[in-house]
Design a protein that fits this description.
Number of strands: 4
Largest sheet: 2 strands, parallel
Structural class: alpha+beta
Shape: globular
Number of helices: 5
Radius of gyration: 16 Å
Distance between the termini: 15 Å
Helix content: 40-55%
Order of helices and strands: HEEHEHEHH
Length: 128
């Protein structure tokens, strides 16, 4: 594996037509943001007059299970999802992005579109 984070690992496995692994029941929620949006938020932050903490996160929450299902759908392949029992309780990673939307980015790339772009990008990398 080249990648270690949940989304890139799942995408890499889907591209390789390997099953996706979800630990526990997959109901933990995450809010992902597309990299182009992160870059634009950083660029826009250079013009801020004040200094404050701003969460740079997406608008749409998705469960890890939902992420795996969406990646399988984007792949167009019949890829299975393997659920591995885990004693680690579900922990949602959700953050308030209202300051980001107010001060840095009013529009974000929709989750599915960002995933599709990332999938195609990684597909190109892995086929080289």
């Amino acid at each position: 594996e080249i990648f270690k984070k949940v989304m890139p690992v799942m995408i890499q496995n889907a591209i390789s037509k390997k099953e996706l692994t979800v630990f526990g029941n997959g109901m933990a929620k995450r809010t992902f943001i597309y990299i182009d949006d992160v870059v634009q938020a950083i660029i826009n932050s250079l013009n801020l007059k004040q200094s404050e903490i701003i969460n740079i996160v997406g608008n749409e929450s998705i469960t890890v299970k939902g992420l795996a299902e969406l990646i399988c759908s984007i792949s167009g392949e019949n890829i299975s999802i393997n659920y591995i029992n885990s004693d680690i309780p579900n922990q949602d990673c959700l953050f308030d992005n209202s300051k980001m939307r107010q001060l840095l980015l009013s529009q974000l790339t929709p989750l599915k579109r960002g995933l599709e772009k990332e999938y195609r990008y990684m597909e190109g990398l892995l086929k080289k």
